[in-house]
Structure formats: structure tokens, C-alpha cells
Amino acid sequence: MTSQSPALQDLTIRSTEILDSTGKPVRGLEAGETYLIAITVTAVRAVKNISIGYNIKLANGIAVYGTSSAIQGHLLDFEGGETKVSRFTFKPDLGLGTYYLSSGVAETLTPEDEIHNYVMLDFVHDALPFVVASDKNTGLANLKSEIISFEKIGVQ
């Protein structure tokens, strides 16, 4: 349920977890339920303008979704020796299947101008495989389509 990075560098991802509503690590998820993605990071030295994020992919490498603290408007500063956990809400409105969660931590180089200009400090590829059980969604994702009307347009 926890994936750990073996690297020890200036900023290291210590663990990546998916937590249920009780805080228990899980890998079997129900579509439509709310979970937390928790990414724990430790700094060896003081660093500023840090973005922590994740992406979800299929087994064939196709990206399903990704986000980061920078994309959501939050950059973090770390003191040397400090450990922080970033938690993202996650509602897997996905089709039945196996998915792969990767986590990353990056130092933004121009935080005031362009958040996508960064140096990746640690990345854990396929940190956590997980399965989504769904009896409502077909296809890859639930796009929340609802029928809004039925209209008779003629008779033959």
C-alpha cells in the first residue's frame, strides 16, 4: 500500500499512498468514492518553490490524469531535514481496470512567471498500481453525461 523511493538526494519522495476515508492505505478503489493521495517528501537541505504532484496512467503508458501543487497554485518551502506530506483528494470516476500512480517532486525555476519551468528532483514511476471497481462506468472515465430530455419529432 506504500511505495518508497530508494534514492537519497536533496529532496526525496519517502512514500506514496492512496488512503480511504478512515486513513487506511488501499489499492482497491470504488468508482465515485473519495480517497486521498498522500505523498511524503523529505528535504536534506533547505529548498524553495517546490511542487509536489502525481499522474495516473494505464498499463500502456497513456496518461489518464495528473496534477500538482503548482498547478493548483501552491508552492512549498522546506527546511533542511524537514518532512512534509501533501494530500490530494481523489475521486476515481474511472472505468473498471488497473491504473498506475506515479509521484514527483520538482523545484520551480521561475515560480512567478512559468510554473512549468522546473527541475524534477525525484520521481517514482508507477509508485503504486491500483484497481478501480465500477459497475456504472463504461470506457475509461465517467464524463457525467445525463439525459436531459426526450422529444417526439414525428411519426411515420
UniProtKB/TrEMBL annotation:
Natural source organism: Bradyrhizobium ottawaense
Protein name, per record: Wzt C-terminal domain-containing protein
Highest rank taxon of the organism: Bacteria
Pfam families: Wzt_C
InterPro entries: Wzt_C
All residue ranges annotated as the Wzt C-terminal domain in the record: 11-142
